[in-house]
Task: structure prediction
Amino acid sequence: MRQLRSILYNKEMQHRMEEQAKVEAGKKKIEWGSQIRSYVFDDRRVKDHRTNFQTSDVNGVMDGKIDGFIKAYLMEFADKGE
Result:
């Protein structure tokens, strides 16, 4: 019984590690130039570099009005599964 339990445990751990590896593979590196959005207060502009969506409502974006960015992202990447 112990051996069977050990085998089942190892299989489950292997499955979990494979699932975690899939998640990790989808992550982007955090490094210079990989930012997704620029906030330029002097020019009154916020731009999403992934979708090229931009707005001049900097204060609105800072207050949480990001529906335009979300919609642009979904429209751009919805069918790509990212």
User: Anything to note?
Assistant: Residues 2-25 form the longest helix (24 residues). DSSP finds three helices and three strands in the chain. The chain has a mean pLDDT of 85. The first strand starts at residue 37 and ends at 40.
